[in-house]
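Translate sequence into structure tokens.
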Amino acid sequence: MDKKTVRAAAAQIAPDLTSREKTIARVLETIREAASRGAELIVFPETFVPWYPYFSFVLPPVLSGRDHIRLYEEAVTVPSPATDAVAAAAREHGIVVLLGINERDHGTLYNTQLLFDADGTLILKRRKITPTFHERMIWGQGDGSGLKVVDSAVGRIGALACWEHYNPLARYALMAQHEEIHLAQFPGSLVGPIFADQMEVTIRHHALESGCFVINSTGWLTPEQIQSITPDPGLQKALTGGCMTAIISPEGKHLAPPITEGEGILIADLDMSLIVKRKRMMDSVGHYARPELLHLVLNDRPTAPMVTPAAHPLPERTQTRIDTDGHENPSLDRNADQRVAVLRG
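Result follows.
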């Protein structure tokens, strides 16, 4: 990491609940504003485009079909004009962008995080590995191929969405790849104040444990938007609070007062020397680790509903040959024969 200081931004804004294009317009406007304030990195809320499926939290499945289909119609394919527009904005302003989207892949939606580098290149596309509670009716599951840290213009970046942060092995997978800046996304405007309190504990703990910076973004719903989702005053309470847009240092400290209500862009400067200051004392994947006792095994291969032998050759099998009396004879193992020949050579 050559940069000594990185100016980071976290956006807490409302989507447009009527149109993907209008929400993308809000994204592009916010990128321009953050860049005008010197930001080199900006994080948007979870599945911000076209919007987070708040309806699934307050409506029973039998009544959610219309809203679910509308989400399909407004969802983002990758690549598409929507992603091209964000890539162009990142390139124009020289800013790294993490955008949360509802990704449509044929008949399935995914909670997807897109990371664009400062030159507009899409350097990470990952899907939330396990949707939470009501979300399981909306999204499919991601795989381990997205649990990776990538190099960017501002440093080594890893990302997780919402309650993936409660999966310690998912977090450790990124820690073991030495992330310097961790990007987190939550929906916001959900559950109530207790959600914001839990979120703060979670992101501060990860910053301490990983010895990295954490930039977290949550979304915001206006009172009018809440009323459009449900007319029930009791259920409307479930769509308030839960906002904690924050930037945390490797020492677990807020680098600016968090945004917990309303819209805004939080900006703070990341002193990258704090990473070494923290890890000198406690490096969870280095001198403080005991890999001979405890270590993580990650399956980072992409999954697919169909594979072909040409694309994915079958592994060579060890074959044990059979004696004429029908018993296995290890001495006739072809692989063993080859090993003996090598040893004799």
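Note: The radius of gyration is 24 Å.
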